[in-house]
């Protein structure tokens, strides 16, 4: 082969070599960019290396918690018991007779009287005022380390204990105690929802498939950051939807258990206490 032929071959090969070199450089740069982005987004996550992969047992524990934390007790039954005691303690401001469906109804309040409906509004307003303060002050702890899960545990116990406290409400004159029990239990219940909802993004992030996509595929440049975010987002939505379904099933089951007691024993003076006991025991 003459020198002229060799030169011609080199001229033909040179663009191919440059293209291959450029392609390799681009791939290396793309992988580097992905790795830097991964480290900037996930490298500061606490216990990112030691965090265990979400197990099936852990996931189902999360689902079953929402079966019990469905709100029948603090959201519905406790309020009904509080209002029942309040109305039974009320009287007609005109003649002091017990309240009827057509008369005004008031209770003694701070040296005077206040309408029963106003007392209920005060209780609800106080409840949401406390929750607003609590969530602004303590809400960020839900995303900080392992502190949130201990708060969830403590708040669950508080809600549970104060719900059982309603079993001591037997006479209408105990309505102030019923009001306090209702406010505390409802605040605790609302707080459990906040700290419970803060858990599922972490569960989704450490699901086996999502973790593999983040720690292997994303780092190796097999997927882009946008593709990984879509994978994690879909897993979060999946867990959220299933847990919501479990909450609805738990709500339905608890109401069915309540009715199985309330209907046959409707003339028993302690039927409400028994129904509340069963409601809490199912939670």
Automatic annotation (TrEMBL):
GO CC terms of this entry: endomembrane system; vacuolar membrane
Pfam families the record matches: ATG22
One example of a Gene Ontology biological process annotation: autophagy
Protein localization: Endomembrane system; Vacuole membrane
Record flagged with keyword Cytoplasm: no
Membrane topology designation: Multi-pass membrane protein
Alphabetized InterPro entries for the sequence: Atg22-like, ATG22/LtaA_families
Chain's role: Vacuolar effluxer which mediate the efflux of amino acids resulting from autophagic degradation. The release of autophagic amino acids allows the maintenance of protein synthesis and viability during nitrogen starvation.
Family designation: Belongs to the ATG22 family.
Protein name as it appears in the record: Autophagy-related protein
Organism, scientific name: Gomphillus americanus
């Amino acid at each position: 082969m003459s020198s002229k032929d060799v030169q011609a071959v080199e001229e033909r090969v040179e663009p191919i070599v440059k293209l291959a070199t450029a392609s390799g450089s681009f791939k290396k740069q793309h992988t580097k960019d992905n790795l830097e982005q991964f480290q900037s987004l996930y490298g500061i996550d606490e216990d990112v290396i030691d965090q265990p992969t979400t197990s099936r047992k852990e996931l189902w524990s999360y689902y079953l918690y929402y079966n019990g934390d469905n709100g029948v007790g603090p959201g519905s039954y406790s309020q009904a018991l509080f209002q029942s005691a309040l109305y039974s303690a009320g009287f007609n401001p005109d003649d002091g007779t017990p309240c009827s469906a057509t008369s005004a109804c008031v209770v003694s309040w701070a040296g005077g009287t206040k309408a029963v409906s106003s007392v209920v509004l005060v209780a609800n307003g106080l409840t949401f005022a406390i929750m607003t303060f609590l969530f602004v002050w303590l809400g960020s702890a839900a995303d900080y380390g392992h502190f949130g899960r201990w708060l969830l545990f403590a708040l669950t116990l508080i809600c549970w204990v104060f719900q059982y406290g309603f079993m001591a409400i037997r006479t209408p004159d105990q309505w102030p105690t019923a009001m306090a029990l209702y406010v505390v239990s409802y605040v605790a219940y609302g707080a459990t929802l906040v700290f419970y909802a803060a858990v599922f993004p972490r569960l989704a992030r450490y699901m086996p498939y999502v973790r593999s996509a983040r720690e292997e595929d994303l780092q190796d440049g097999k997927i882009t950051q946008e593709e990984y975010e879509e994978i994690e987002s879909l897993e979060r939505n999946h867990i959220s939807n299933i847990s919501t379904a479990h909450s609805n099933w738990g709500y339905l089951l608890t109401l069915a258990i309540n009715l199985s007691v309330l209907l046959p024993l409707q003339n028993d003076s302690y039927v409400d206490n028994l129904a509340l006991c069963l409601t809490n025991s199912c939670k």
